[in-house]
From TrEMBL, chain B:
This is ABC transporter permease. Keywords: Cell membrane, Membrane, Transmembrane, Transmembrane helix, Transport. It is found in: Cell membrane. It comes from Glutamicibacter ectropisis. The keyword GTP-binding does not apply.
Length: 308, 311
């Protein structure tokens, strides 16, 4: 109980040797919090790299072609015949399918985050900076979208425009922009009251230029912290769409599709569902941990600056 | 209060109306002909035309929309093409299943997440808390369909404790509930922790402690009392979102709810059924949201509806 409330142990100001030992300092809540953040940061980095590096290097690794069928080697268990992850119902190497599928999943995730980030930052800063009718319209659209049944709408739009990669990327981006926009808007609302904005206005700079050159760069760093969390969500959304059959179609084998294909063989071939799923979990946990640690660190720094 | 309630109801109805209108337009823009999927691959052009006329699909879009608005007021949204029954009836038959799953999941989430979050707040930044913290991050990082399949394999195939699909016995409720609740537990417990820590560090708590209020009262009455309000709102909002159908989990477990219904309706281009599902779930979500807002002043006497509630 007392751990969260007690003040961090403070060293006395006098020159004589302190009664506060190094161990006590280490145990102080501030030091421990910094330690948890550090651990999360490292764990997150390692987990993310474990998944991302093999995916990035998939073309160079000595693995089988992801689409090469070998009907004589159907549903081999992991580690049999040089198939690290086993094979699927058509004898295709599962590791290779997971890695190449991951390229598609990751690419969609990254693109979606870039697009939603751009839309969110632009619309959010317009709403925050100009206020009045711009704010009313953008905020209403935000609210309306947040009250819509999300997955249902995504399925609908994918059914409408066909499950191509640009459509799926766009759909995920549209699902995610409200989060960025809300955050940017609230940051800009604070930023526009700062003296330098008034100074720029007095100097006669056009409003758009103040926004684009001065305000947005100042809020960008804080707004960008949400990006990692969005990337995690985007990967999960894409896999859910793929699982429901609204993901990228052949020849792309994304993670959600691998799992939905493997579902039929779950009783006899556990690896076809388990291993692709573990890949998603490791990646998303890693990215989430990273995002969490960066946010913790940033919060502490900004609260120190403001002397809270 | 007197102006607040009508205003909120009006806003809610507007949201529902816009939602169903957007859906109305989107499904008609979509490729794929409901007449073709209804009449089958061997249908002649004459038969297709007859089917379109029967469904009213040969009329201009604007006229279809006017008819649809009229239907909204009568509450009769037409016959479902694939079920050959009134669409609203089909959705209402499925609704109790989704309601059951959503209720049991939110209850399980609240029962686990609130104590867990309080524990995390009290043990903040210890090694044990770090471990649980990482676990909650894992909980929000698992794709729910994957978790579902894993649980299904583990506890109904390998160890046959629970039925694998559908809802015939109460045992069938266990695995879907856990699957849905895992994500909610992860999110809500982190929120409880955040709120509790904020309250633990608030000046009012130090003053109360200096006046000799016991730690137990400080934790349970003071801190939890204040932290409870945003947590209650979050739980309510999540519950409202679940009423739109826990689509993926329902598909995995063959759960006969609204979520699996909408997937099927989209596949067969069953326009009335899609519209009815969206209308009913959107209405329900708005009502639940309104109830949460109305419950606010009961939990927090400082809140006056119509003034603070919009913040």
């Amino acid at each position: 109980m007392s751990t969260t409330i007690s003040n961090p142990t403070q060293a006395p100001q006098s020159a004589r040797s302190s009664a506060v030992t190094k161990q006590m300092l280490k145990k102080s809540s501030a030091a421990r919090r910094a330690r948890s953040t550090r651990i999360k940061l490292w764990l997150g980095t390692i987990l993310t790299l474990v998944v991302v590096v093999p995916i990035a290097l998939a073309n160079l690794l000595p693995i089988a072609d992801p689409n090469m069928q070998d009907l004589g080697a159907r549903r081999l268990a992991p580690l049999v015949d040089g198939h690290l992850f086993g094979t699927d119902q058509l004898g295709r190497d599962l590791l290779s399918r997971v890695l190449f599928g991951g390229q598609t999943s990751l690419m969609i995730g990254v693109l979606a985050v870039v697009v939603s980030g751009a839309i969110g930052v632009i619309l959010g800063s317009i709403a925050g900076f100009y206020g009045k009718w711009a704010d009313v319209i953008i905020s209403r659209v935000l609210e309306a979208q947040m009250s819509l049944p999300l997955l249902m709408m995504l399925l609908l739009v994918v059914a409408l425009f066909g499950p191509s990669i640009p459509v799926i990327t766009g759909v995920i981006a549209i699902a995610q922009w409200p989060e960025v926009a809300r955050l940017t808007r609230s940051l800009v609302l604070v930023e526009r009251e700062k003296p330098y904005v008034d100074a720029a206005k007095t100097l006669g700079l056009p409003k758009l230029r103040i926004l684009a050159q001065h305000v947005i760069p100042n809020v960008f760093k804080q707004a960008s912290l949400v990006i990692l969390l969005l990337l995690a969500q985007a990967v999960l959304l894409e896999s859910a769409l793929s699982f429901l059959g609204a993901g990228p179609q052949r020849p792309f084998s994304t993670w959600g599709r691998l799992i939905s294909d493997g579902q039929d063989y779950i009783t006899t071939s556990w690896w076809m569902v388990t291993l692709p799923g573990l890949f998603i979990v490791i990646l998303v946990v890693g990215v989430n941990l990273l995002g969490d640690a960066l946010r913790d660190g940033n919060l502490r720094r900004s609260s120190k600056k403001e002397g809270k | 209060m007197l102006t607040y309630l009508p205003k909120r109801i009006g806003q809610g109805l507007l949201t529902v109306f816009l939602t169903v209108s957007v859906v109305f337009l989107l499904i008609r823009m979509a490729p794929g002909d409901p007449a073709a999927s209804f009449a089958g691959p061997l249908a002649t052009n004459e038969q297709l035309a007859a089917v379109r006329e029967q469904f009213g699909l040969d009329k201009p879009l604007l006229q279809q929309y006017v008819i649809f608005i009229g239907q909204l007021f009568t509450g009769h949204l037409g016959q479902s093409y694939s079920f050959q029954a009134p669409a609203v009836q089909v959705v209402m038959d499925r609704l109790p299943y989704t309601l059951t799953l959503a209720t049991s999941s939110i209850l399980l989430a609240a029962l686990v997440a609130i104590p867990l979050g309080m524990w995390m707040a009290r043990r903040s930044d210890t090694d044990a808390e770090l471990g649980v913290n990482v676990l909650t991050i894992a909980g929000q990082s698992m794709p729910d369909f994957w978790t579902g399949i894993m649980l299904l394999t583990g506890f109904s195939v390998l160890i046959p404790l629970f039925p694998a699909s559908g809802f015939t016995t109460w045992g069938g409720l266990v695995l879907p509930t856990i699957t849905v609740a895992i994500l909610q537990i992860a999110l809500v417990s982190r929120m409880v922790k955040r709120e509790m820590v904020t309250n633990f560090n608030a000046p009012y708590l130090n003053i109360a402690r200096s006046r000799g209020v016991s730690e137990r009262v400080l934790t349970w009455k003071y801190a939890l009392g204040n932290a409870g309000i945003p947590v209650f709102t979050a739980l309510g909002t999540r519950f409202a979102a679940m009423l739109n159908g826990v689509v993926v989990v329902e598909v995995v477990f063959g759960w006969p709810g609204v979520g699996s219904l909408i997937v099927r309706a989209l596949e067969t281009r069953d326009y009335p059924l899609i519209q009815a599902t969206v209308l009913i779930t959107a209405l329900l979500a708005v009502v639940v949201q309104l109830l949460i807002d109305l419950a606010y002043p009961l939990l927090d006497p400082r809140v006056r509806l119509g003034k603070a509630a919009s913040a």
